[in-house]
Design goal:
The chain is of the alpha/beta class. Helices cover 45% and strands 20% of the residues. Helix 2 crosses helix 10 and helix 4 packs parallel to helix 12. The chain is globular, with a radius of gyration of 24 Å.
Length: 322
């Protein structure tokens, strides 16, 4: 009997020893978490993501590293994230451009329902900028030049959200524009500086230094408010043009991520955005802090996606075959 009990005890100990490493491996996270950014390094989206990643790493107790996957007007990143294991170790940037506008502008392999959202953390401040050597001082100047030209006016762009301004202007003026794609907003802005294209719609952080150096000129804010750095420059709406972009920047993980891991990531994300130093850093780089929780951002993305589809159809923008 003693021998039998000893065998049972040994077996139980062996089973416990075998199970212990499994429980240990379930601690989350126990390795680096990555954030896949859908634009190139150095742009506003990349900079804002790195600010958030640094603070989230403190909350999670593991490195949170940024991985840039630009391409396909900003939709390559979400397409990649949607196919990754739903284990909580891959977070993707889900800006309005890729989630609300992109699926209507280019053929994509993902749906907005393919993700569990952590939430939104910022809003872009967009503006229409031109090379300072051009004669353009207003949107009206650009449209007047376009009406006199036999060729479409070129503009630089990194993604679908900024593309949309120009069909809006075409609808009201008849002037035609043609896009030139770049991997980031910074690249597009530098192309304007180099006179490769005459204009772009850019985020403030991507062009402030060039504006201050006198190489670029801000024609109009294309968000709902003027830029604080240039309070005398009107919004496009104030200038009489129906051209407006309101675009949130959010994060998500692949659909089906375990609930406990999702909630831990959401909690770290929320705490990060409650940190005044994070909000200050975002403001310093021209990004407006704007926290929304995961379920709220999920609902907003879907509502705005449907509204955007109606708007794009009204603009007559060709839709991709899905």
């Amino acid at each position: 009997m003693i021998a039998l009990n000893t065998i049972k005890a040994a077996a139980a100990f062996g089973l416990a020893a075998a199970i212990a490493p499994l429980h240990a491996s379930e601690v989350f996270p126990n390795k680096a978490v990555r954030i896949v950014v859908n634009f190139g390094a150095g742009g506003s989206t990349d900079i804002a993501s790195r600010i958030v990643a640094k603070r989230m790493s403190q909350e999670l107790g593991q490195p949170v590293v940024v991985e840039n996957r630009p391409g396909a007007t900003g939709t390559l990143g979400p397409a990649y994230v949607a196919k990754q294991p739903a284990d909580g170790y891959t977070i993707g940037l889900t800006p309005f451009g890729a989630m609300v506008v992109g699926p209507w502008m280019v053929k994509v392999s993902y749906k907005t329902s393919d993700f569990d959202y952590l939430g939104a953390f910022s809003k872009y401040r967009f503006g229409l900028v031109v090379n300072a050597d051009t004669p353009y001082k207003t949107i009206g100047d650009i449209l007047s030049a376009g009406k006199k030209s036999n060729q479409p006016l070129l503009f630089g762009t990194p993604g679908p959200a900024t593309n949309l301004i120009f069909p809006m202007l075409t609808r009201t003026s008849g002037v035609k524009f043609e896009q030139v794609m770049y991997k980031s907003g910074t690249e597009a802005a530098l192309a304007v500086v180099a006179n490769q294209v005459p204009m772009s719609v850019s985020v403030s952080t991507e062009v402030l230094s060039q504006l201050q150096a006198g190489k670029l000129r801000l024609i109009a804010s294309v968000t709902s408010t003027r830029w604080p750095e240039y309070p005398d420059v009107p919004t496009a709406k104030e200038a009489g043009f129906d051209a407006l972009i309101e675009s949130f920047l959010g994060m998500a993980v692949p659909k089906g991520t375990p609930a406990d891991r999702l909630e831990k990531l959401r909690a770290a994300f929320k705490t990060t955005m409650a940190d005044p130093s994070v909000r200050d850093e975002l403001n310093r780089v021209g990004m407006e802090p704007a926290y929304l929780d995961g379920p709220t951002y999920d609902q907003l993305v879907e509502v705005e996606r449907q509204k955007m589809g109606e708007q794009i159809r009204a603009l007559g923008v060709p839709l991709p075959s899905q």
